[in-house]
């Protein structure tokens, strides 16, 4: 039996704690804030409740495995879980209204043909077929196993080269998502916007992200998108309860200020001014400089996020999808505002989250809605001193122009700025010479393991859960 200290009670910390305690280890979790869940936060006011981080769950198998391995119960006994149907609605600047079914690649193709014209679904389907090859090639090394000691094979993009005929044979190989949109989707504005929306949602620039990033829409369309009743915070609550059942000790409002070492390996932490001995230390913190005398390898800063929480008067309209996307007026201008000329994008891609969940509103005569936009990094925006209140007005006008006018129903709104929400944490992707790989969970300091969204296998709830699983499996039973 090992004494293990985990720094941080985010989702990876909770998942690791429950797994390791089930394996017979003594586990203490030190959390600097007063609660658990990390990015899986919650804002409550006047009977309304909003998720302030992830809103929908993909790859629920990760948390199903956690539930079974730590308690022999199906996940559905711990939380209310169901597939979202339809998966999403998309409103385009030309007036096109596209509704995509959940977990149905055939249904997606039919919907695309109906919205964009015959052949659109076939083109999209050919891309997702090639993305399936990426999934099969990278599922284990980029999701289920530690990052290889020699990651160089993952520097190459496994996205298969599409058949090229005529003069196309002379052009360079498809390398980026933007190449996929131009060459394989024919530059169709609607299909291009769909692909770009997936990239922006993960904080990726489609002009830089490898073609293999097509695995992201493939995963959603193949394995589905799921909603947790009570919001995603209910999932954090369930994993926290499981930790308690397995005897995990939590110390909240207890920041770790130092990782102790002895004989060249981690031997404990200083937390809340107290020395806590440990055989192993797991850290979810992004920066270990000053803790263990070194900093973990880091990825390039990702774009930020801006959200508007809307408390609406009036009943949620019947048949309203949980997720609606209002697409940008101009994809190129949106990317320019995110990169070359940083500013709050005008008429951008907006994610609208409208859950059908009575537990999130004071009564049936109200609705809780969240708008989220990808914006430049906080460091870039802070120099501009942006007026976020005026920008929220702009977003509401933008939605109204797309036929989704919520302005007259607003009882109140709350703004979550990029400095509060933090940056996107993209998943690990193969290709591009390794630029999109998250750092390994191996630490230069023996006895110290790194877990969470900023290390392998990268960001997102599923990958946070897999980070914990990979590390707990490597440590093994007591």
Kindly describe this structure:
It is a single chain. With 478 residues, the chain is an alpha/beta fold. It folds into 3 domains: 3-82 and 230-299 and 426-475, FAD/NAD(P)-binding domain (3-Layer(bba) Sandwich); 104-146 and 156-220, no CATH class; 303-421. Helix content is 31%, strand content 21%. It has 13 helices and 20 strands. The strands form 5 sheets. Strands 8-7-16-17-18-15-19 form a 7-stranded mixed β-sheet, with helices on both faces. A hairpin with a 2-residue loop joins strand 11 and strand 12 (265-271). The chain is globular and about 65 Å long. It comes from Kitasatospora kazusensis. Residues 11-473 form the Amine oxidase domain. InterPro entries: Amino_oxidase (IPR002937), FAD/NAD-bd_sf (IPR036188).
Write the layout of secondary structure elements.
Blueprint: E1 3-7, H1 11-22, E2 26-30, E3 42-45, E4 48-51, E5 57-58, H2 61-71, E6 81-83, E7 88-91, E8 97-100, H3 105-116, H4 120-144, H5 177-184, H6 189-201, H7 215-223, E9 225-228, H8 233-245, E10 249-251, E11 256-262, E12 265-271, E13 274-277, E14 280-283, E15 304-313, E16 323-326, H9 331-338, E17 350-353, E18 366-375, H10 378-382, H11 388-401, E19 410-416, H12 418-421, E20 448-450, H13 461-475
Helix pairs in contact: 1-2, 1-8, 1-13, 2-13, 3-4, 4-7, 5-6
């Amino acid at each position: 039996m090992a004494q293990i200290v985990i720094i941080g009670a985010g989702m990876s910390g909770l998942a690791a704690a429950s797994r390791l305690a089930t394996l017979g280890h003594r586990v203490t979790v030190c959390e600097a804030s007063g609660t658990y869940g990390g990015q899986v936060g919650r804002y409550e006011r006047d009977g309304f409740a909003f998720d302030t981080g992830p809103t929908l769950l993909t790859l629920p198998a990760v948390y199903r495995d956690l539930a079974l391995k730590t308690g022999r119960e199906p996940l559905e006994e711990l939380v209310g879980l169901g597939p979202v149907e339809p998966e999403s609605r998309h409103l385009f600047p030309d007036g096109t209204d596209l509704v995509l079914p959940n977990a149905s690649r055939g249904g997606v193709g039919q919907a695309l043909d109906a919205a964009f014209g015959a052949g659109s679904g076939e083109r999209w389907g050919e891309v997702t077929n090639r993305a399936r090859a990426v999934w099969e090639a990278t599922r284990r090394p980029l999701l289920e196993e530690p990052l290889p000691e020699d990651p160089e094979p993952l520097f190459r993009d496994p996205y298969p080269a599409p058949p090229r005929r005529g003069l196309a044979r002379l052009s360079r190989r498809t390398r980026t998502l933007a190449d996929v949109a131009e060459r394989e989707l024919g530059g169709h504005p609607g299909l291009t916007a769909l692909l770009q929306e997936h990239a922006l949602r993960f904080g990726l620039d489609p002009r830089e992200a490898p073609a293999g990033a097509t695995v992201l829409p493939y995963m959603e369309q193949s394995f589905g998108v799921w909603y947790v009743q009570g919001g995603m915070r209910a999932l954090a609550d369930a994993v926290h309860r499981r930790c308690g059942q397995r005897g995990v000790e939590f110390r909240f409002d207890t920041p770790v200020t130092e990782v102790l070492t002895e004989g060249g390996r981690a031997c404990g932490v200083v937390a809340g001014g107290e020395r806590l001995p440990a055989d192993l230390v797991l850290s979810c913190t992004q920066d270990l400089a000053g803790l263990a005398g070194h900093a973990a390898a880091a990825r390039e800063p990702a774009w930020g996020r801006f959200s508007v929480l809307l408390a609406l008067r009036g009943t949620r309209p019947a048949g309203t999808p949980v997720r609606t996307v209002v697409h940008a007026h101009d994809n190129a201008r949106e990317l320019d505002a995110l990169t070359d000329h940083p500013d709050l994008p005008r008429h951008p891609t907006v994610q609208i989250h409208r859950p059908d969940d009575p537990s999130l509103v004071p009564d049936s005569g109200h609705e809780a809605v969240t708008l989220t936009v990808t914006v430049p990094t906080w460091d870039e925006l802070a120099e501009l001193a942006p007026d976020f209140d005026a920008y929220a007005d702009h977003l509401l006008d933008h939605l109204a122009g797309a036929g989704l006018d919520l302005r007259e129903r607003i009882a109140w709104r709350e703004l979550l700025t990029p400095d509060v929400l933090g940056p996107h944490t993209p998943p690990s992707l193969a290709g591009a010479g390794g630029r999109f790989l998250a750092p390994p969970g191996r630490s230069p300091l023996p006895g110290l393991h790194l877990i969470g969204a900023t290390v392998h296998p990268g960001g997102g709830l599923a990958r946070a859960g897999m980070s914990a699983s990979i590390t707990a499996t490597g440590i093994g039973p007591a």
